[in-house]
Fold these 4 entries.
Entry 1:
Amino acid sequence: MIRICMVGTGYVGLVSGACMADFGHDVCCVDINAERIAGLKKGVIPFYEPGLDKLVTKNVQADRLHFTTSLAEGMAAADVVFIAVQTPQSESGEADLQYVMQVGAEIGRLMTGYKVIVTKSTVPVGTARHLDRVIRQAQPKPVPFDLASNPEFLREGSSIEDFMRPDRVVIGAETEQAGNLVREIYRPLYLLETPIVMCGIETAELIKYASNSFLAVKISFINEIAALAENVGADVSKIARSMGLDKRIGAKFLHAGLGFGGSCLPKDTHALVHIGQEAGVDMAIVRAAIDRNEELPRRAFAKAQRLLPAGAGTVALLGIAFKPNTDDIRAAASRPLTRLLLDAGLKVRITDPVAMPMFREAFPEAVACASAYEAASGADLCILVTEWNEFRQLDLDRLGAAMKHRAFLDCRNVYDHARLTAHGFTYDCFGRPAPRG
Ligand code: NAD
């Protein structure tokens, strides 16, 4: 059993902490957000993540998972301290490290014995060196410690499964002792023969950005092919399927539509471009992927304008979370799309199974609705933005009956021309032009 302090109880910190407790370790999760910690002590999960409530309750009851606002308390008995706080995109594109460094300074101030300090947050190359200086400067008297980097690859919506059955675990460490201690945390994964990649800290830091940027490039690539397919009468979904059947390519992240969003791919691609600039390397491929992605809400808006009958004024948005099974709307494509629709003077009615509270705050002028059918009431166009399961199985007659005009923009390529036109809708999607004739 290893004693772990997890600093930050967001998506990554809370899921990692709960999973590590489930591995059998003693985990104390720390957050400066007192409301969040008070809620967690009562079993209230601060965001939507399937299965997390049960995992937290189980490990709290087993006395392996604890919550506190006091870093001193969290660190007191810890062998390893993970930093899992946010690293948002700053105005100039690079990762904002202020939260990581604040935690580093506090750790330095409180450290009384050897600890391994691990960055789990996604941080640019060189952050560990910077953190090392910050910790040393904050120490009242020198206390030995080691740094390590253990980037996280979990995805919101399936994060527990991702953490418990990862494709790989990456551990960058400056000493063998630190690397081995972090590796020991993941011992339960040996049974699954999970590959554990041991490397230097800089390599670990860059692996995370390289992986996320590659996924972003894959999505933008298929969206570029979708734009081309539309103009030449080809079907991107068949192209993607055939490409994906090639084992060298793989089927995942080849879905054309509104592109990537959320708290990771947009900011991590921007950060990698910035890291490249600092290191004198133009990350031209990643820049192109960002540009392609950022134009997609405008493409959706142009399609919406073409579908709307003249003088029409109401649009129903189905789904606003950046992907299904999460309430995260950070950098979701729904945001610029909603802004474009509202700025064009259209009325926007929106619905999402879990993300409505977040969206209401961001767009108070949009009308919040409890279901797709309520959102469609009196609308001239329905736009499917997030492919939640309940939007994949719409009763199209009921939807159409609620609407003023039957028009449907399918930003995730869930439906098809034949089905929608059979129900009297005009229909458009991404990269799958209407069959000729
Ligand atoms: P988040 O914003 O959901 O959570 C961060 C938490 O840290 C918040 O609860 C905040 O109150 C807390 N915090 C901030 N400063 C603190 C301090 N000084 N002391 C204690 N707590 C503090 O962030 P997240 O989505 O969990 O992401 C965390 C990191 O993990 C980021 O670097 C992100 O890029 C990376 N990451 C995120 C995901 C994901 O899917 N969300 C996946 C992989 C990696």
Entry 2:
Amino acid sequence: METLTANAAATADIYRPALHYAARNTWLNDPNGLIFHEGVYHLYYQNNPLGNVWGNMSWGHATSTDLLTWTEHPVAIHCDENEDIFSGSIVHDRDNTSGFGTGSAGPLVAIYTSAFKPGSRHEGIQAQSLAYSLDGGYTWTKHANNPVLTRGSANFRDPKVIKYDGGAGSYWVMVAVEARDFKVVLYKSDDLKNWEPLSDFGPANATGGIWECPDLFPLPVDGDPDNVKWVLTVNLNPGGPNRGSAGQYFVGDFDGTSFISTSTVTTGLNNPDLSREYQWLDWGRDYYAAVSFSDAPDNRRLMIGWMNNWEYANHIPTTPWRSPMSLAREMSLQTIEGSLSLVQRPAGYWTALAGQEPFSLADTTINDGEQVLAGAAGTVQRIDVTLTSGTAEEFGLILRGDGANGTRVGIRPDEGKLFVDRRESGQTGFHKAFPSLDTAPIRATSGSYSLTIFVDRCSVEVFAQGGQVTMTELIFPAENSTDLSVFAVGGTATVTSLQVTQLA
Ligand code: FRU
């Protein structure tokens, strides 16, 4: 068993996020069992209750009412001598189809992967198991007849269960992965206990790493409730567009049995040159294992991802905790240049946070070089900026700067690229894969680019062009690197508008 690292007490907790969830003093990875229930957002997560590196996998638990401030609760589902509790989901079994309920409210049922340990009855197998809660998600009991679904496979995991109500009937549908076969496998059930196979999906598009943590959900196209498409998300590790862990998605139709993708690139499987044609949930290095909430209010489709990357996850220099979650994001499906794309917006209930008057600027030329914006410094901020091309080959913002170090978020207009350059962002030497210059495709709107950027002590989340492209990256700057600057290379550009809101 792992214990807390020796330097736990030695370093100040300067990276603890203000707007993102991180456990108090332990490790976390994937969000699990996201559900909105009785007015509360529940976030369960892969957790090592005994340390701040991966191990002893159990489900940690936190709750929020605004998706920005979180309360940590005792571990919800513990590993034991037989099994680690891997990723999965939670449904509210309103009609008590499972029979776990006692009152009228209907139990919460968690469907998780039992990763069976050496010496256990199912050694070496990953299979799907149940636990239920009769107190709204705070305490959990494992089902006596686990596992409920096995294929005798060592890599069958990460069940996301949804209630399907459509032309084919009304039943539970599970999407899970056969990770090493690059397959999403679908099952159906009437009672969450007995499952029968429906279909498989994949391999398709990016297969540069194992497939993990799938999700399947409907969304109206361009807001039209009479035109609904289904989105299948699949996380893969490695094989992301900028290396390492990332999430891809497919848009298509689900008839209650099969998911038929209309966005599969058919000209070659896992051709690295095609990675820019695949559809990515996020182009940054630190957005993985993203899944959506069950039962979010007003039919919103809200997702949270793990803000880390398996390439260096166990080494990031935070202490005593390790790994934050991303902000919650609201997904919509929009027609962009003739194809259906996910568009993402920050979903938290922000109004309560706005503090002092924002710093603002308009129609200001950025000359070749760097200019610090006096009065805009900070470590927890929302930046809304529209930048317009001039003669510069590259322009943008430098976040968390100090004259020497800083994180550059910018545009290379001739290449149609948005980039995050964290090669000189502060501490980068803890792993050789960490320092990086990462890019995403971006199209200008009449020569302009609008970016909403959240800076939160150890992270930068960029929502570009209204959320058409997102990039999420960890950074570990010095505590006193707080400057915000604009920069241009080889010419000029314009800050058409800029607003910086301090959110600490
Ligand atoms: C993804 C993942 C899942 C697994 C969990 C184990 O990050 O590898 O496939 O269930 O983490 O912690």
Entry 3:
Amino acid sequence: MAAMDATSGYDRMKELKEFDGSKMGVKGLSDSGITSIPRFFVHPPETLSDFKNSSSTCTNIPIIDLSGIINSKDNDHRLKIVEQVKEAAKTWGFFQVINHGVPISVIDETIHAIKAFHDQPHEVKAKYYKRENELGGVMYTSNNDLYRAKSAAWHDSLQAWMGPEPLKVADLPEICRNEVVAWDKSATEVAETVMELLCEGLGLEAGKFKELTFLDARVLVGHCYPYCPQPDLTVGITSHTDPGVITVLLQNHVPGLQVKHGDEWVNVKPVPGGLIINAGDFLQIISNGEYKSIQHRVLANSSKEARISIVIFFNLAKWKGDGYHGPLPELLSSEKPAIYRNFSRQEFVENFYSKGIDTKSLIEKIKLQN
Ligand code: OGA
Ligand code: NI
């Protein structure tokens, strides 16, 4: 890409660096009262026109009630829930769980604490602003993929790797420290329950994913989508799939998340106390295509109130002895041959960190032509 647009004299890299260097994030831009957004946030017409295709119907992603699963031995009921989870993961790749056992007070405190972090003056947050901790520790920044993506998006994020190496808790900003630690614990419990149900849906032992260390490499990201003065020109988060096993997402009441279902984009309506679960690329691969990693995006926020979401991505902690992963051998047979080849940790990392979040290229890259 040319560093300088010869016709207009627009130096995109210079503008990106100035924005990044100011450490003010989009929250800072929004708070400054700007009425038009910097040009590097403006998305191309193809992306923007696709935003007009959002579903206006009342469909929502499946809602699964986990009451009766947690601490219960009612096997018939469990089988019904396993079926629901399996069906949702196969057809939607996304579902919302309710009655998951996490008290509403913990949920409210988490949202409140992440909002409080982002609400601080940007001079206070600036000391956490960095990009070099993308693969470990704590990092606060605007657009993790700022320099990799084609266009920037209207969100800032506080990111903390909660495992597999224990996080240095003192590295977390004090304003949300206890809440982040508590949320990690609660969300991991929910993830464990969901992973058990997902395993059973594949005919595997309930504890298989835990044994494969899928609960260990967790990254927690507290996003803030502040008011955007030109929401029709940019996005909150570019359409993408999540790379890991599963994601647990908690959001406040400000809408914006959309999930692709068939040819339609479906609005995910916030359900009070509900937690959104979605399958990542890795789950699609190891399940040999049974569970789907589905594209999702967030609209730029047109409401004066910030949208807050807290996601925990469950990634791979350990790679097999030879450093490869692929469809689980237990799921393969002559009727169901592998549709993906094995891939290495290096391929996974290089693929993810070499580009913006907008392409599902790992899955495409390792698909076998059966
Ligand atoms: C993500 C993501 C959606 C949201 O961080 O991968 O899809 O609602 N976030 O913040
Ligand atoms: Ni995502």
Entry 4:
Amino acid sequence: MDMFVIRGGTPLAGTVTINGAKNAALPIMAAALASSGPSVLQDVPDLVDVRTLCKLLSELGMNVNRDASGDLRLEVVDDRPHAADYELVRTMRASVCVLGPLLARRGRACISLPGGCNIGDRPIDLHLKGLAALGADIRVERGYVIAEAGRLRGARIYLGGPFGSTVTGTCNIMVAAALARGKTTIESAACEPEVVDLGNYLNNMGARISGLGTPFLEIDGVEELTGTTHRIVPDRIEAATLMIAAAVTNGDVELKNVRSQHLTAVLEKLSEIGVKIANVGENRLRITTSGELRAADCIALPYPGIPTDVQAQLMSLLACTPGISVITDKVFPDRFMHAAELARMGAMIRREGPSAIINGAGQLSGAAVMASDLRASAALVIAGLSAQGDSAIRRIYHLDRGYERLERKLRQLGAHIERVEDRADTFPHSLRLDQPQTAAELTGPHWSHPIANTTSQKRSA
Ligand code: UD1
């Protein structure tokens, strides 16, 4: 297992290019199952999740190849398989995106139920409700969802749930409805740019979907979807992660291939915190800071709000920003595993239901921490980049699911970050308790504030 060893304190500087979005690439790759011609996908990031889905799609009868230019070529060569096994689905929840395409094209899908995960309960009841409304017969047996249907038929479907709409649920229903007989209306559809990207891909293959980017979708079913060539939309979460990394280190970073119109809420919040963001060309942003950053309150909401996938990274930034900040997650209200790890670096964070109250420490101190999920890993990397001294970020296999070699991009920007195998002899000397250290080195931020939190203990100097 790999870990990152980071020496914090270097301001990031330079230019990096943002990849295509994981959350667009995965449902689009899955949707290729519903087409009858070959597709070529450009800017598909080379991630563990993408490789996992390639494996699943191969098992489902697809020819999947990445050519020398990096384009991903997908074509159905056998339309008989219809099952997605637990072993694959448990490693990647987005496998559920094959449900709608399989059902629509092959009339049957058998998909392992994904179960919960480290960011909270993640039911798929809305996916199933939508597919049932389209005429599918659905049952759950031995941990698998089994969905069967003849030709699906259009319906009026409401996709709102207790935490808003569902992103992958909207993707599943949209693909299924694209091949259904008649018209489907989806109300409370997810509006995320990745859903729009999938809709554009489907329309390029002959689907008739209107209202993309709004909560009301109208879909006129067609008989067949052909293949097409499609470029994946840039990853707004990777862009936000690198912006926050630049800000937390007082850096000067230019991002290429970033769509600022997909990041309005994040850009506004970063500006409020004191981060300077300038448009420096088409799809190019420059991130700098000048002087002190300010505490702020953030609420993660469905798009166009601040994404829940940026909540953890913002927490790292605010943990280093003097003052009291409050972060609330309305999409995944239990998504706070990173708070306890940040506390190991001296962050003062108290959890209150779906919120975290952060008493910004000014500067964190390096520590060994454990990544619990994809975006929590990114948050710990950000904290490590800004902290005083060395940090060891363990279990970064979570990070590799969603960032393509993040350490290379960060090194390109001057960060001191190494990927090493997690072994006793690679663990940073400076983090070993048996190493002689001065009292000053052992003194992290002081726990003097009244909100000093419940997840950490006072440390002695
Ligand atoms: C997608 C993203 C993920 C992001 C999330 C929220 C992909 C591959 N993943 O996940 O990175 O964090 O959107 O923006 O695109 N819910 C229900 N019933 C359902 C489905 C969801 O109650 O049937 C709830 C969930 O528990 C959650 C909220 O709705 O509280 C949003 O979940 P959803 O949009 O479905 O997330 P994913 O599509 O799994």
